[in-house]
Amino acid sequence: MATQASPLDTPRAASPGTAGMPVLHMVIFAGLLVLGLIAPYVLYPVFVMKVLCFALFACAFNLLLGFGGLLSFGHAAYFGGASYVSAHAAKIWGLSPELAILAGTGAAAVLGLAIGSLAIRRQGIYFAMVTLAFAQMVFFFSVQAPFTGGEDGIQSVPRGHLFGLISMAPDRNLYFFVLAVVSIGLLVIYRIIHSPFGQVLKGIRDNEPRMISLGYRTRRYKLAVFVLSAALAGTAGATKAIVFQLASLTDVYWTMSGEVVLMTLLGGMGTVFGPILGAAVIVTMQNYLATFGDWVTIGQGIIFVVAVMLFREGIVGVLARIIKRPL
Amino acid sequence: MFELLGIPPQALFGQLLLGLINGSFYALLSLGLAIIFGLLNIINFTHGAQYMMGAFVAWMLLNYAGVPYWGALFLVPVIVGATGVVLERVFISRLYHLDHLYGLLLTFGLALIITGIFRNQYGISGLPYAMPKQLTGGQNLGFMFLPNYRGWVVVVSVVVCLATWFVIEKTRLGAYLRAATENPTMVGAFGINVPRLITLTYGFGVGLAAFAGVLAAPIYSVNPNMGADVIIVVFAVVVIGGMGSILGSILTGFGLGLVEGLTRVFYPEGSAVVIFVIMAIVLLVKPAGLFGREV
Description:
Chain B: This is Branched-chain amino acid ABC transporter permease. The complex is a heterodimer of chains A (327) and B (295). Chain A is mainly α and 327 residues long. Chain A is 69% helix and 1% strand. Chain A has 13 helices and 2 strands. In chain A, helix 1 packs antiparallel against helix 6, helix 2 crosses helix 11 and helix 10 packs across helix 11. The N terminus of chain A is likely disordered. Chain B is built from 11 helices and 2 strands. Chain B has a two-stranded antiparallel sheet. In chain B, a hairpin with a 4-residue loop joins strand 1 and strand 2. In chain B, helix 1 runs antiparallel to helix 8. Chain B is globular. The mean pLDDT of chain B is 88. At the A-B interface, helix 5, helix 10 and helix 12 of A face helix 4, helix 9 and helix 11 of B.
């Protein structure tokens, strides 16, 4: 098998180098922030919070796939695993929401380190299969472990008080906290992508043998980005557990891993803003199709097929090609 | 009767037999995956859905057309294999020039569509499929009771696996196949229609999955979700065995089924994860898999 690391052959957004943020990106971030500030007054805040959590999840996943060239099919493990830890921390240990989310993030990072260090021993599709299999192991663990509540999950998780002071029970209060968490997460991802570390990653993605010959220890870079991606996916899952006051098996099941792949693919892998759009589209679709039962699954399958067959660059990827600027 | 480590032999052999049955399905499915991967260079994520389709088509043939089990055993692989040929022609064949991962994503999407359609149509409660009359009842072997149908499943799986191995390793067609795996361009230059070979190979791999589905129908209830969970275990089996060798996939499949059965006797809580634990160990010790070649 003469494959390289995973040179996904979509045209990528060229990187603007490591210097400051281009004006276009600043404008888009500012626009997104304004949208985020207005949204809870127009839409149902819990719905927008769900979109935000999935946007962070998809961007964390895209950090690994789009910039590291590693297709993990098991990101539900970190998303769902962190949601269990943060729900447990908030409910049983009585931690405040920010500490619960930190606990979830930390747990996801540890899990990512354990699974990542094994998974990076294989490449390409084997990597995808290994991550999927380990995620299924986490799922089985979650079914049986005493603290996860099995089929019931961890229910009625208290939203608590931010820093022990501000009540998070009203949706609006919680919303702005979630907006802050997700914004910080997205900026961290942006910073990673455009750091020297991110440049090396893109080098590994595009031609791993060359990066090895240039003296880079590519395994360390791959492991590092795996752990970062897992941790940030954990932040998203931990936040979701606080928002919905629930951690359940849905979040660790393989369908969740598939959903985040779909969001990233649809929005545009290897783009900065694509996964945010992809997450918004998919969550909205789930919301409106929820009453039609399994049509959600069928719809997702159709989007997968159409995206792979017709626009592998994703929506934002196509836009970026039209305006000839990286997005 | 003797006892092993406090386990009554009936329980031990019963679980070993169950393990062997699961192993039969792992072997048939991972064999199909390995054959498809060898030639198409894609991981067929639809495999689990096609296994499920096998069980459902057998059920439909029985209930809508009155075709009994024995007819289904031959018809179903052909029917489901034909749908595989269509999928390969319409979708998969357009992706060969791209990275392998797109094949994975595409077949994942197809699996979602197929599973969703069957769930919509038949719900998730599962449909019963009666065991063929000739294979009801069982044999008392002295140390355990062997239900005839289960014995049949193990025997026929071994036969089909070995026949597949024979065709691929010992016949002219198999030689073409192996040559096309190594160097499709060269084989094409010798006048062999490689695209057709690829299509038929995919159809055959899918047919194997459907065959496993028919075998499974009387044991498990016919359920739209039956493929999804087994396919992930089969992925782990494939990672453990490595996809380099046909015989390797077969041995790994049966072996891991047995290990799972043994775990269910001695440490039931671990039976769901034991294969994944073995996968972790294999990745640490021999990353290319037990029978794999380093890539």
